[in-house]
Specification:
Number of strands: 34
Shape: globular
Structural class: alpha+beta
Number of helices: 50
Distance between the termini: 54 Å
Strand order of the largest sheet: 15-34-33-32-16-28-31-30-29
Helix content: 40-55%
Strand content: 5-15%
Radius of gyration: 39 Å
Largest sheet: 9 strands, mixed
């Protein structure tokens, strides 16, 4: 492979050609995706299934075009059989053709179908899926048995009715769900796109459409016609539909574009809206600009207009360089030193000597027509139809902006670049003249990686006879547009298609979320299995008795029975066994499964409709994604939470900085308040004082900034960096050195980034920054506020307005940020010609790359300041730089270009090259950014804790930051002993010794017996200890040898904070707890790095926050804020769990009553499987007579209201202990049902035993069918009353449904028996209901059946009351009436009744509630604010010290508060005073508090040398081997 990177151009070629600009290597600012094994296996299985259907997965790469590709060049080889080579305007080599000369590779169509069914496959496929349910197969088997009269079924058709009804209901539900997917699929597949036609795409062949496919197309057209008929209704329901789509995460239609912020398309052709009205209108799109006044040209000054090179407007009020409306050129600086640079020859894929027909044109077609190898042209606001390599864009530098919201949920814009060699391809005829091929890797699901290479034979236009030279340009993810993305702020993009349909990344990522089943559903399988065993035993007994009885010769059966079906005792028993299965089939109720589906569906709907979990700022309700695990929400014992964006708002505000050893910035953070709270400070008073001081300082700073420079881009309300002393030093108050350091620091923030500038015209103008990280946007915004404004980019130039003067800086390289590197660098050429590398990243990463033995004092000061910032809960970064020589940079850049051109292992090679240049750095300072807690987080955590739920925080932040956030959100308090695990030796043996030491505090050794005991113990640990562990140590303790000890240690601690952890470590921690303790776990997060733990937990909750929606897309439930989690679990989760537990128990109970009544009857007919009931009773028992009351219980029953559930969170503990659904409860209900079946049968039996029944007319009424009326009516009354007895909420609806269901059997019997079609059952209702004995025995049956249950419940509630029983009594007494005046989401722990820790039995004396006042029933054990957090160790001393310190600070005057003269701004610097000490109230206040805290006790940080400052001072460059003494010597030399 020949790479022509540098080539001196002829001076004659430069006369007429524009100088080639160096393109900025804009790489992404994003975290690196970590794939877990489960996701990889699922993606691989998807690929394997596809490759079995299509040969495109196993493609022998071609050797290149015949005659053009030289031998030995890198092309495809048989070593990579899954790659693909795509040719453009070149003949296919023979190796890529089949026997008929067609392409050997068959690529998938671009038409996709996410729906399961088609109109033709719906019925067979749906039935196939439904009969995957073992219960449906069982009942189908029963129906088949009923067909044969030998088994005694009287009406096989009627027996099939329940299964048919269930299959139809399920099919309708599935059809409705799938029809919506079909509509979206058809809308997407038929979306318009401009595709090059009338040219030869050699990669595909036109195949005749088969008759079967034509038939399917006809069905599709019929569906589309139906959709159009419904379109009017959709328009009327537009707002509702939009709301639902936002909530459920459905992809929007491409026909609903948002308002563009870009300029109009510069083409004289009609606009796209006009073209849509011209069917099949082909056109050749050219780059000719629209004439002035063209109606297609949009107003480029609209708000939100983004700077986009040649198409944007970015006027500066300070320079004449921005006079043009269409171009932002770099300012011309007088006297600028210019360093000659060798020109880079990128080559050109256009063969100018190629003769073409010029018949090709871009024609509006459908997405489904796009094929691999097609040229496609996209316009602003359009979605990308396939995975496309960008060839050219409307931007002369090849940049385009895309929004990946439909792909990964992120709403921020991302930059994609066109290939250098193809940026001149603009017209259709240019596409026809191209000659190149793309070698691509195989399709895979990683959204953040792609490797390919564009290759072509470069011909010399001056000497056509000279042999061509092969050239190569790498194709990366930055050159690829993925299907589902949307073009933003770019007029047009031209590209070629490399992946279509099922091979696109969005389709390969579809469906990777693992399916989850609720724990009760898993337990239900065992209960059904028990019933199968009981059924088998009943049928076996019937078969044995029947076989033995008919086999005996000494019975009267031969006188009364006219032969038998079997002819022998054994065969009769065999037939009886299967007949008994039909008779006792209701023991395994088919209606149970469909009832549970209905209940869970409605529960999910109620969760979605809860307005108290609706988050208005993002218009997002609580959205269930998995409808079948709502009951797991009521059994959560462990919650694993991310911090940033989950507990915090993920809205970053720049608060503080340390520059050249000087700290700047004023802030009073929540973490600082939490730290003061545990020291006994009145945080409310201190907060008011601090905020007042900050407000005054902000006014002073704004005034000083205006005096220094009247920055039109400064918006006073947006200023977050409050540091008047910084502005003073910026004007020279602390000397020229500090002034230069401050200026250079802010300039570094303005240069080292990848943000997109968005300019909003107005008076004054407004500039905003769109970044993939909110941290980065905050850094650049602060630089803007301080007078270093990023105006925009022009090619490889970034324009910075420095205090009114525009400066141009050339960006040579941008080295990307990811979670592995933890840093980002930009290499720039400064205006004076120097080359500077600016690097920002995590403090430990930057410190390890600083120049060895230098800046010792500065490093120590900066480390101390960063530690102080971290204690305030701020996120810290370090800024460093390195000056490069021209020779050094050129050598490195060649290595970088070679690494970038690699197709294999490109990321590893780039990482190695980047690491080589990011060494020997010079420290500039550090930044501190605040991410505030979300509203209601402390109260929500307190509620969850009182409910017995343990919360673990898994975050990537520093240890100090996580600890202070833990104090501020009530995870930690001052009475806890913090067990900090940090093993610096990285040895497993040391980690084991540390664990053994801490386990000894709890008298534990980590044995298997202790683990078995821990699994049974669900009580929350005492709030005496908390564990804090970092990522490196976590990697050690997750070793199989230590995992059990670490788990047992954490089990004994109230809170666990895991810091500096990776996504895979988060998932590993969740897996350890879930499997090790056998508990129900919940993970909650908001970013892509939380997906692994969300999918690993039993319940995954995603927050629709600032980091995109990928966590939401992978979750089971989605909410807008963390505080809604308390209501989701404590209210809806507890309700769903308790309702389903009672519903399932009652279902088994009622079927035992019915089935065993038949079983007892068959004792008296030798188990010949006779029916004592009419067959219609058997069919309607579960379908109509008893289904509604038990279903209504599962949907609407409430023991207490939602407000009381939040006021008394201890009620949730029964779910943690899993006491609502146990094996004991199952067998208790089964035995109760067996007892009641005895009463229901033998009471009528004793009534009929004397055989003296006759009606007033003398007719006998003692046949078995009329006896069945006595049994069935009484059983149904008993069952419905029993369900009502177990129902907590007796409102009008519950009572009405129970009464109607009970009366339904009387109505059915009266109506059905009035017709002769009932045969033996004719007139049974009139004859039975007309006797007094029936009503008397029915009344006695009800009393005798329900008396034991009523007695047991009364005894339990009076003498062994549970917590819920006491709370219900308090509600009846009006003790919770005050809650009627409070919003449910506003209820906190301030008004919680003091309930017992045990949820089984109340620990209150004698089971009575404590005395309380009439207004507030009980007080919280620990109020949420005020004195309970006051420390008993030196709190008064600290308060006095802090008061004196604040008084001293407040009395100091600021010497640099300059008056603001009207109409004139002065930039005169005050005289430099070397003895001047600036006022820094916030820093001094915190430092005083820290000193006082150390005097209060020996902190764990101090005792274990754990502070970040001490840690960072031990970090030396990877090339440094200086000892501490040598460092001190070097420091002395510097001094």
């Amino acid at each position: 492979m020949a790479i022509k990177l540098y080539e001196e151009q002829s001076p004659y070629e430069n006369d007429d050609a524009e100088q080639i600009k160096r393109a900025t290597k804009k790489l992404r600012w994003a975290t690196k995706r970590h794939n877990n094994d489960q996701g990889l296996q699922k993606r691989q299985s998807i690929l394997n299934r596809w490759h079995k259907k299509s040969p495109s997965g196993a493609i022998p790469p071609a050797d290149g075009p015949e005659g053009d590709k030289p031998d030995g060049s890198e092309g495809g080889s048989e070593d990579a059989p899954q790659g693909r080579t795509i040719y453009f305007n070149m003949p296919l080599p023979d190796s890529s053709k089949d026997e008929e000369g067609h392409p050997a590779v068959v690529y998938p169509r671009n038409k996709i179908r996410t729906a399961k069914y088609t109109p033709l496959s719906f019925f067979p496929k749906n039935l196939w899926f439904q009969f995957h349910n073992i219960a449906n197969i069982y009942f189908l088997f029963i129906i088949i048995l009923c067909i044969f009269s030998i088994f005694g079924a009287s009406n096989p058709g009627l027996n099939a009715v329940p299964l048919i009804v269930i299959l139809i209901i399920t099919a309708i539900k599935d059809g409705i769900e799938d029809f919506r997917r079909t509509i979206l699929d058809n809308e997407l597949n038929n979306s318009p796109v401009h595709r090059l036609v009338d040219w030869n795409n050699v990669n595909t062949s036109n195949v005749q459409v088969s008759p079967w496919r034509k038939f399917k197309k006809a069905n599709t057209r019929a569906i589309m016609a139906m959709i159009k008929l419904l379109s009017r209704k959709k328009k009327k329901d537009g707002p509702i539909k939009a709301y639902v789509e936002r909530a459920t995460g459905n992809r929007p239609s491409v026909e609903s574009p948002r308002v563009s912020s870009a300029t109009g398309r510069t083409s004289f052709q009609p606009s796209r809206d006009e073209v849509r009205d011209i069917p099949n209108q082909g056109m050749e799109l050219t780059p000719v600009h629209s004439p002035p006044g063209s109606p297609d040209r949009r107003d480029s000054s609209a708000p939100g207009h983004a700077f986009r090179g040649s198409t944007g407007t970015a006027e500066s009020p300070f320079s004449d360089a921005h006079q043009s409306d269409d171009h932002l050129a770099p300012p011309k600086e007088k006297g600028r030193h210019s360093v000659p640079m060798p020109q880079r020859n990128y080559g050109n894929i256009i063969n100018q000597s190629k003769n073409v027909s010029e018949q090709g044109k871009f024609k509006k077609q459908y997405w489904k027509d796009v094929q691999v190898g097609d040229f496609v042209r996209l316009y602003n606001e359009e979605q990308v139809p396939a995975d496309i390599v960008v060839l050219a864009t409307s931007d002369p530098d090849g940049a385009c902006y895309v929004e990946t919201k439909n792909l990964d949920g992120e709403t921020n814009l991302k930059v994609r670049q066109a290939l250098h060699c193809s940026r001149t391809v603009k017209r259709a005829r240019d596409c026809e003249r191209t000659e190149f091929w793309i070698e691509s890797e195989a399709a895979h699901a990683n959204l953040y990686a792609y490797n390919g290479a564009a290759r072509w034979m470069q011909r010399n236009a001056k000497d056509p006879s000279s042999p061509p030279t092969e050239m190569t340009e790498p194709v990366t993810i930055n050159n690829l547009l993925l299907r589902g993305c949307s073009i933003r702020n770019t007029e047009w993009v031209l590209g070629v298609v490399v992946f279509t349909g099922e091979e696109t990344k969005i389709m390969l990522n579809a469906g990777i979320t693992p399916s989850k089943r609720a724990k009760m559903s898993r337990d239900l399988n065992w209960n059904v299995l028990y019933n199968f065993i009981i059924l088998f035993l009943m049928c076996l007994i019937a078969a044995i008795v029947e076989g033995v009885y008919f086999g005996r010769a000494d019975t009267t059966v031969r006188f009364f029975e006219f032969g038998t079906y079997g002819g022998s005792g054994g065969l009769n028993g065999f037939i009886t066994f299967w007949a008994a299965i039909i008779l006792f089939q209701n023991l395994v109720p088919i209606s149970l499964y469909i009832t549970l589906e209905i209940i869970r569906t409605l529960q999910a709907y109620f969760i979605y409709s809860d307005v108290h979990m609706y988050y208005e700022p993002v218009d997002y309700p609580c959205t269930p994604k998995s409808w079948n695990i709502s009951d797991d929400l009521g059994q959560i014992e462990y919650i694993f939470s991310d911090k940033t964006g989950t507990l915090t708002q993920n809205v970053m505000e720049f608060k503080k900085a340390t520059i050249a050893g000087i700290p700047y910035g004023e802030a009073y953070t929540e973490a600082q308040a939490g730290m003061q709270k545990r020291q006994g400070i009145n945080v409310e008073e201190e907060g008011r004082r601090a905020r007042a001081q900050i407000a005054n300082d902000k006014i002073d700073m704004i005034r000083s900034l205006r005096q220094l420079h009247n920055n039109p881009y400064l918006v006073d309300d947006d200023l977050t960096f409050v540091a008047p002393d910084f502005v003073s030093d910026l004007r020279g108050a602390s000397g020229e050195a500090q002034q230069h350091a401050n200026e250079h620091f802010m300039l570094a923030l303005a240069l080292c980034h990848t943000v997109i500038t968005e300019r909003h015209p107005g008076n004054p103008p407004r500039i905003e920054f769109k970044a993939q990280s909110p941290d980065e946007a905050a850094l650049v915004a602060t630089a803007r506020d301080c007078g270093f404004t990023v105006i925009g980019r022009h090619g490889d130039q970034v324009i910075i307005n420095v205090h009114g003067q525009d400066m141009s800086y050339t960006v040579l390289n941008t080295l990307e940020f990811n979670s592995t590197r933890k840093r980002m660098s930009a290499i720039l050429r400064m205006p004076d010609g120097k080359i500077l590398l600016i690097c920002k990243g995590a403090d430990s990463i930057i410190y390890s790359r600083l120049s060895k033995g230098k800046q010792y004092e500065l490093r120590q000061q900066t480390a101390e300041h960063l530690e102080t910032f971290a204690r305030e809960g701020l996120r810290t970064l370090c800024i460093a730089q390195r000056e490069l020589s021209e020779e050094e940079y050129q050598v490195w850049n060649k290595e970088h270009e070679i690494a970038a051109a690699s197709v294999q292992n490109r990321e590893e090679k780039l990482e190695h090259v980047s690491d080589a240049i990011e060494q020997e750095l010079t420290l500039l300072g550090g930044t501190a950014i605040e991410d505030r807690l979300q509203d209601g987080v402390p109260d929500a955590i307190a509620l969850l804790g009182r409910a017995g739920i343990k919360l673990w925080v898994l975050t990537g932040d520093k240890v100090e930051t996580a600890i202070n956030i833990g104090f501020s959100c009530n995870l930690l308090d001052n009475s806890m002993e913090l067990i900090v695990l940090r093993i610096e030796t990285n040895r497993v043996e040391d980690a084991e010794a540390e664990l053994d030491k801490h386990l000894a505090k709890f008298n534990m050794t980590g044995s298997d017996e202790e683990l078995a005991k821990a699994k049974k113990d669900h009580q929350p640990p005492d709030p005496t200890h908390a564990v804090v562990i970092d990522g490196d140590t976590l990697k050690l303790v997750l070793d199989d040898r230590l995992k059990q000890k670490f788990l047992l240690l954490c089990k004994q601690c109230k809170s666990v904070l895991c810091c500096r952890v990776s996504p895979s470590q988060k998932a590993a921690v969740v897996r350890m707890v879930k499997r090790g303790l056998d508990v129900i776990t919940l993970s909650i997060g908001d970013g892509a790095n939380d997906v692994a733990m969300i999918q690993e937990a039993d319940v995954g909750v995603g927050i629709a926050g600032e980091e995109g929606r990928q966590a939401v897309m992978s979750s089971d439930f989605a909410i807008g804020q963390f505080r809604f989690l308390a209501r989701l679990t404590l209210v809806h989760g507890r309700w769903c769990y308790r309702r389903l537990a009672e519903t399932i128990a009652c279902f088994f109970y009622k079927n035992i009553v019915w089935t065993f009544s038949l079983f007892w009857y068959n004792i008296y007919d030798n188990y010949d499987c006779s029916y004592v009931f009419d067959y219609s009773y058997i069919l309607l028992y579960n379908l109509a007579f008893t289904s509604l009351p038990v279903a209504l219980m599962g949907i609407l029953d409430q023991d207490v209201s939602d407000k009381v559930s939040l006021a008394v969170p201890q009620l949730y503990k029964r779910g943690i202990e899993r006491l609502e659904w146990t094996e004991t409860k199952f067998w208790t209900y089964m035995l109760d049902g067996a007892y009641q079946s005895l009463i229901c049968f033998f009471m009528p039996y004793l009534l009929f035993a004397p055989a003296t029944f006759s009606n007033p007319g003398g007719q006998d009424v003692n046949d078995n069918r009329q006896m069945g009326v006595h049994i069935a009516n009484a059983a149904i009354v008993v069952v419905n009353t029993y369900i009502l007895l177990n129902t907590y909420r007796w409102d009008w609806l519950t009572t009405l449904v129970t009464v109607i269901s009970t009366l339904l059997i009387f109505a059915w019997t009266g109506i059905y028996t009035s017709f002769t079609a009932s045969f033996q059952f004719y007139k049974a209702a009139a004859e039975v209901y007309g006797t007094l004995n029936f009503w008397a025995v029915t009344f006695l049956i009800v009393i005798l059946c329900l008396l034991p249950r009523f007695t047991a419940k009364a005894f339990q509630k009076m003498f062994m009351p549970r917590d819920v029983d006491l709370v219900r009594e308090l509600v009846r007494e009006g003790k919770f009436d005050y809650l009627d005046y409070e919003e449910p989401e506003g209820i906190t722990t301030e008004h919680k009744p003091a309930m017992s820790d045990s949820s089984e039995n109340s620990s209150l004396p004698n089971g009575k509630a404590p005395e309380m006042n009439a207004d507030r029933p009980m007080s919280a054990d620990r109020p949420m604010s005020g004195d309970p957090f006051r420390s008993t160790h030196g709190s008064d001393e600290y308060a006095q010290t802090l008061e004196e310190e604040n008084n001293r600070i407040s009395t100091m005057s600021n010497p640099f508060t300059l008056p603001r003269s009207s109409g004139e701004f002065t930039s005169t610097s005050p005289s430099y005073d070397p003895n001047f000490v600036p006022t820094r109230p916030s820093f001094d206040r915190l430092k005083t508090g820290a000193r006082q805290e150390y005097r209060m006790r020996n902190s764990f940080e101090q005792s274990r040398d754990f502070t970040s400052a001490n840690m960072l001072m031990r970090v030396e460059s990877s090339r440094s081997y200086l000892t501490q003494g040598e460092q001190q010597t070097e420091y002395d030399k510097q001094r």
